[in-house]
Write a sequence for this structure.
């Protein structure tokens, strides 16, 4: 297998909506209705580098699906990754989190990856919070965009995009 | 393989936004713009137990990716599940739905699962509706949180979190 | 393996929220708070046909997980697809995009698929934009609904449903 060692700058933009919950115990479900005329939104911009190493002594990606007949675009080939996210381009710069999940070659004609991942942050107020990514990564494009479909911790209800 | 028989309490919180659609027939796309000063939100809280049985006579989980060299954190190992969701901790208590989808060991250093699932409900007004989950499950933590990234049926446009 | 050649009409409904970003350079994160009394929503309705061909000379789906003991509902069986989306039911009609990603048989009792996909559009103003799908596809039902959990390009921040 050829070596893949990618380094990508991610900028994440997302929006948090405020939400108020009413909890009533002891049954399967409870609903409440909330009419709001004002919504508070918090916009957060994160900026970091993504390091994916498929080869060498300390790979961060492991191939989990290997097909008998590999095509030109590796269609169907799938990796599980646990990739460091760092503050600066250098892999030895400050660790801000980890990208954990799957990427898979999902096109018969291009080098397009389907990304299904969680970005779990460990830095400052983001420690313990994560965002969920589901989208396409056009590997060879200069600008790539993936959508942030949710989050946990301080990123509850988050939506946004990564590029 | 060691037996995994987990029982988890899930509390789901999510928000539904009202939406009004204008449909015009006969072409690929139509758009409309809606300015609203008031938004109605419905907050639903569901509370149920999740049963995942990887071993025994009637497993609810099936290993779909088995790697030649298993690591301490089972990195890359992946299961397909069709797990019952019940009202009370006992597996024989009332069935309220099923969790169907994938979980995968996604960390090289911890027991963290990437969850990509649909929770399809069968109880009361929720029958036929589902929510989509994408996020990380820190198996050994007392409180775990995953994000709800969408839904269908009465959960259209839902977002929220499960813990 | 039996042949699967499905053709499905998809109607996508989704809502786009306007968002304003403040970008400050040079550090890992920046936040801003935006109080809005009015929200602009754009509702887009897309209508197209989905062609999935698992057999023949030019398959658009490739089985990536094949289990030793196949069950009645193919539980665990997983495909990677790169399926054309067309304007009309005929596969040779105008191409409007491609559905790229994974579907997996996720039920022990029904023919239910878990869909984890990106629909990348190539037509008109949608060219280069994509939506992310995560949800259940009840193959044998007349009306099926999956949730749109995010998007990129002009579909940034999109949510909605496909049926």
């Amino acid at each position: 297998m050829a070596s893949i060692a990618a380094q990508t700058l991610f900028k994440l933009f997302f929006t948090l909506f405020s939400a108020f919950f009413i909890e009533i115990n002891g049954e399967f479900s409870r609903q409440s209705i909330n009419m709001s005329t004002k919504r508070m939104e918090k916009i957060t911009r994160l900026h970091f580098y993504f390091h994916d190493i498929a080869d060498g002594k300390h790979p961060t990606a492991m191939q989990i699906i290997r097909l008998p007949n590999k095509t030109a675009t590796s269609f169907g080939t799938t990796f599980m990754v646990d990739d460091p996210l760092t503050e600066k381009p250098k892999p030895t710069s400050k660790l801000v989190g980890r990208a954990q999940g799957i990427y898979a070659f999902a096109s018969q004609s291009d080098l397009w990856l389907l990304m299904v991942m969680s970005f779990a942050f460990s830095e400052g107020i983001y420690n313990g919070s994560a965002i969920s990514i589901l989208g396409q990564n056009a590997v060879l494009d200069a600008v790539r965009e993936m959508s942030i479909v949710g989050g946990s911790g301080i990123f509850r209800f988050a939506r946004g995009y990564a590029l």
Notes: The first strand of chain B starts at residue 5 and ends at 17. Residues 15-27, 33-39 of chain B have pLDDT under 50 and may be disordered. Chain B has one domain: 43-162.
